[in-house]
């Protein structure tokens, strides 16, 4: 595995217009057929882009289709209409350029934490010894050096997420899809994990699609926050650039007056849009 | 902790002592001129013990134990191999599974004892008719568990492995196979037990060697002491095998949080 070139971590967060598009959703619509009868339009035609090196958060109420959009981007789910482009190429089948940290537990329970991380390299032909060594390094980086020999059921929910993170990052995918990676964590640990993630991300600046319920977390971490409306027929109702300086501290940034201004602006818009959505729905 | 387990052991030994005591008194002390457990029907603990010792000292028993063990192992290995192969095949080919479903259920519903004479007709009185009987028992236990194991792989684990870039072969090796094996191992006690049942029942119904044969022969001449000695050795044999299985299971299923899921 070659090391991706390190970029200047304190680069301004706003990407130059020239940065290539890593992910483009073009009119992606998802409908589920429920038990062969009723059709449920989960996501209305949606378009948006994530540029190379950009950290984009997706925020929305539960059940609005955030996981669904990530599944589509990962190539695990075919959209009912529209298409996905990855680095300018139309996606057919699995999206091999991205790593996906699932919302649910996805570790192989019959492998130790270390083996779970190492296998991600072994699968691509890295000799076992080398893979184990690299995996040990990654376990250290996510703060689990002492938990290498544990099985999934011997780890806490947050520890499992971190193993999952190492498992995804060790492959150095160019796109990172994360579905509520800090879901089961307490507020304190969330911030520690947020900083950990920012640190790892700063090393090689992948394109990130980060799903969360937590608007503050989204603002603290991202370059852009995308807001989705409640489903069915969920759609993007807001797309806010976050021009806070990097590097950031996920905890301290929340005290920044600029952070407050952003939070208020997005929150106001969010409230307005949600109210509108409900009015439209009621008519 | 240690004291507790010592106490448990003492109680367990006590149960044996009381049971043997009742047996001994009933069979050798007349109560109101009558034996509560007549020797002709129940033998006596001492006789049975002497018979067991004699069987081991004369070395006669080893041949029988060896035969039964061989049959058990063969039945287990062949039945498991078949169960794993067919279980996998059916799980990955839903159409085939659907087509064969009623027949699998039909054959599995059949009490195996009725098959014994047919196997003897086909395979003779040697070990293979017993192995075949054991295989019909082991196969289904393993088959159902492997089928379940492949079917029950968590879709998220599967998607994750796919996203990792696993090919179909790697998925088989790192996901389906361990899942299926874990289900199979979780039924190890049952399947090894069934292999032994097949062997002993087969021997009992017609053979020239093995523990089942030993018991059957003793019964033929109303040698109750021989029957009891045979049963005693058989249960001890089962306990040893079960203990070995537990050891194997502990090693193989370390990653499992809860006790294994039993079958049947
Ligand atoms: N396989 C499916 N069949 C039918 N409906 C589905 C299916 N998967 C998801 N849905 C529906 O699609 C909608 C979006 O689901 P999704 O899992 O993407 O929500 P989410 O935004 O990730 O929610 P959460 O924040 O709770 O994880 C939901 O209303 C859900 O009921
Ligand atoms: Mg979700």
Notes on the structure:
The complex is a heterodimer of chains A (283) and B (264). Chain A is an alpha/beta fold and 283 residues long. Chain A has a domain at 2-93 and 212-282: Rossmann fold (3-Layer(aba) Sandwich), CATH 3.40.50.300. Chain A has helices at residues 66-74, 113-122, 128-141, 157-169, 187-204, 215-221, 257-282; strands at residues 21-34, 38-51, 55-59, 81-86, 89-90, 98-101, 175-179, 207-212, 224-228, 236-241. A 6-stranded mixed β-sheet of chain A has the order 6-7-8-3-9-10, sandwiched between helices. In chain A, α2 (113-122) packs across α3 and α3 (128-141) packs across α4. The model of chain A is unreliable at 1-17 (pLDDT under 50). Chain B is mainly alpha-helical and 264 residues long. Chain B folds into 2 domains: 1-39, no CATH class; 43-252, MetI-like (MetI-like fold, Orthogonal Bundle). Chain A binds chain B through residues 74, 76, 94-96, 98-100, 102, 104-112, 119-120, 123-124, 151-153, 167, 171, and chain B through 154, 156-157, 159-167, 170, 174-175, 178-179, 182, 254-257. Bound molecules: adenosine-5'-triphosphate and magnesium ion. Magnesium ion (MG) binds next to α1 of chain A. Chain B: The chain crosses the membrane at residues 72-91, 131-150, 194-215, 227-248. Chain B: One of its GO terms (biological process) is transmembrane transport.
The rounded Rg of chain A comes to 19 Å
CATH-level-2 architecture of the largest domain in chain B = Orthogonal Bundle
- Low-pLDDT windows of residues of chain A: 1-17
Estimated share of beta-strand residues of chain A: 15-25%
How many structural domains can be distinguished in the coordinates of chain B? Answer: 2
Which shape of chain B, going by the Cα principal axes?
Answer: globular
**Fraction of residues in H or I helices of chain A:** 25-40%
Small molecules bound: adenosine-5'-triphosphate, magnesium ion
**Average pLDDT number of chain B:** 88
Quaternary structure state of the chains depicted = heterodimer
Task: Kindly identify the CATH topology of the largest domain in chain B.
Answer: MetI-like fold
CATH homologous superfamily descriptor of the largest domain in chain B: MetI-like
* Global mean pLDDT of chain A: 86
Ends distance of chain A = 57 Å
Order of helices and strands of chain B: HHHHHHHHHHHH
Sheet of most strands of chain A: 6 strands, mixed
Number of strands of chain B: 0
> Structural class, from secondary structure content of chain A?
alpha/beta
CATH domain class of the largest domain in chain B: Mainly Alpha
The total of helices of chain A stands at 7
């Amino acid at each position: 595995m070659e090391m991706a070139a390190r970029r200047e971590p304190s680069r301004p967060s706003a990407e130059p217009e020239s940065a290539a598009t890593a992910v483009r959703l073009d009119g992606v619509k998802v409908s589920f057929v429920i038990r062969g009868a009723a059709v449920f339009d989960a996501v209305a035609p949606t378009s948006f882009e994530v540029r190379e090196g950009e950290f984009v958060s997706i925020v929305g109420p539960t059940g609005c289709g955030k996981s669904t959009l990530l599944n589509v981007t990962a190539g695990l789910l075919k959209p009912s209409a529209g298409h996905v482009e990855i680095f300018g190429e139309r996606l057919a089948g699995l999206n091999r350029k991205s790593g996906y940290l699932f919302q649910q537990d996805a570790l192989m329970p019959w492998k130790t934490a270390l083996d779970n991380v190492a296998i991600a390299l072994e699968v691509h032909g890295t000799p076992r010894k080398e893979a184990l060594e690299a995996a040990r390094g990654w376990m250290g980086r996510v703060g689990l050096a002492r938990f290498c020999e544990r099985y999934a059921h011997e780890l806490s929910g947050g520890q499992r997420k971190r193993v999952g993170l190492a498992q995804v990052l060790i492959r150095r995918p160019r796109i990172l899809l994360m579905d509520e990676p800090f879901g089961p964590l307490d507020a304190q640990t969330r911030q520690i994990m947020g900083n950990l993630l920012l640190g790892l991300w700063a090393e090689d600046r992948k394109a990130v699609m980060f799903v969360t319920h937590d608007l503050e977390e989204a603002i603290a971490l991202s370059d852009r926050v995308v807001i989705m409306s409640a489903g069915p027929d969920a759609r993007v109702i807001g797309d806010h650039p976050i021009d806070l300086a990097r590097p950031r501290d996920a905890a301290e940034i929340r005290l920044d007056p600029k952070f407050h201004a952003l939070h208020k602006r997005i929150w106001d818009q969010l409230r307005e849009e949600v109210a509108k959505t409900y009015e439209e729905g009621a008519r | 902790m240690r004291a507790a387990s010592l106490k448990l052991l003492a109680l367990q030994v006590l149960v044996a002592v009381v049971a043997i005591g009742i047996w001994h008194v009933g069979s050798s002390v007349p109560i109101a001129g009558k034996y509560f457990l007549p020797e002709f029907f129940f033998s006596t603990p001492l006789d049975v013990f002497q018979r067991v010792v004699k069987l081991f000292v004369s070395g006669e028993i080893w041949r029988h134990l060896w035969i039964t063990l061989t049959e058990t192992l063969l039945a287990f290995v062949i039945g498991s191999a078949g169960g794993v192969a067919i279980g996998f095949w059916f799980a990955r080919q839903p159409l085939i599974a659907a087509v064969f479903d009623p027949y699998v259920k039909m054959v599995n519903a059949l009490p195996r004892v009725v098959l014994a004479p047919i196997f003897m007709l086909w395979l003779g009185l040697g070990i293979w008719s017993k192995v075949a009987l054991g295989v019909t028992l082991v196969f289904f236990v393993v088959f159902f568990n492997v089928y379940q194991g492949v079917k029950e792989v968590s879709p998220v684990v599967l998607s994750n492995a796919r996203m990792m870039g696993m090919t179909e072969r790697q998925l088989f090796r790192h996901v389906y196979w361990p899942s299926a094996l874990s289900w199979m191992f979780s039924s190890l006690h049952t399947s090894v037990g069934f292999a032994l049942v097949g062997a002993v029942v087969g021997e009992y119904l017609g053979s020239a060697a093995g523990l089942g044969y030993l018991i059957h022969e003793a019964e033929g001449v109303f040698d109750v002491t021989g029957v009891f000695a045979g049963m005693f050795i058989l249960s001890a044999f089962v306990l040893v095998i079960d203990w070995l299985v537990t050891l194997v299971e502990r090693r193989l299923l370390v990653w499992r949080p809860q006790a294994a899921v039993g079958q049947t």
